[in-house]
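Exercise 7.
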Amino acid sequence: MDGPRGGAAQARIERGAHLIDLGRHGDALAELAPLLADDPHHLQAGCLAAHALFELGRAPEAITALHGVATRWPHSGLVLEGLARGYSIVGEHAWAIDFAQRAVAVEPGRSSRHQQLARTLLAAGRRDEAIVVAQEAVRLSPGRPAPHLVLALALYPEGSRPTRRALAAAEQHVRIALELNPDSAYAHNELARIRLVQGKALQAATHLVDAVGADPRQRAPQENMDLVFLRAVQLGHWSVVAECVLFLLIGILVRDRVVASLLAVLVVVVGLGWLWVRVRRAVPRHLGAFLRGFARRDRLGVVWAAVVAIIATGLAVAAWGPPRVITTAGVVAFYGLFVGTAVSWARALGRK
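Solution. The predicted structure, written as tokens, is:
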């Protein structure tokens, strides 16, 4: 658009792109709408609108918009890449791979086209091919974080069980991405994901906090932090089981009331202190805000955590009583733990 309206159109495109960067995808669509009403096949505006639609979960609309743009720009790598993304989202993997391969053929020297092809192959379950393509993306742009993160994802796809060698390679590329962009929320989340599978939940928590801090809009770091927190709850559950056993033994075997109470108090203080340390390490900052968000995301998880907390608190109160009270508290707590176990199972079944 080279006429007098070209400057206004470019300004509208820039505002739309800025709104997308801010996560205001609906506003971006509103900003781009007049331009697309004038010219439905506008390359930049159409691709930006499609991106906003993808982020809003409206992939079929995005695909339709991109096909409209493709009628004028059939050989645009940007349009072909967008169509590959769209068809991959809706599960049409054969179409997605075809468009991604065409984008690479049009612009073989552009790393982003190889990245999209790698993601598309990965979504289709063709992991070995995805790794090869992602390695080419890294070769083309070794100084950019995005291709390293795509390769890391290909080496360790979500939900898979990677070999130790693949996990080490994935970690290496995530670390390179973080060196190139230390504020990348996605990179921090990927490193946390690696730490979780390595069994290093507390190290994972640190990276998840950094990920949420870098971009609070990202859902994946919050969901992974939920997982770390629930592991702390699970450990707390088993620590309370151990406390119940000790309470029963103290109440039955120790006849001296003062000694029994002191032992019970010591058990509870140690148990609660250890549990508190685990929770604070799992969520080092903004615990209240995290718990409110967690309550919205996982209601049964909150019930489970609450049961464990109530039982632990009840044991703390009962610890000051005579041996008979301590024994009774241990029995009641055991029944409470059955409730907590039932809730945890219901939660697990509900998420399958």
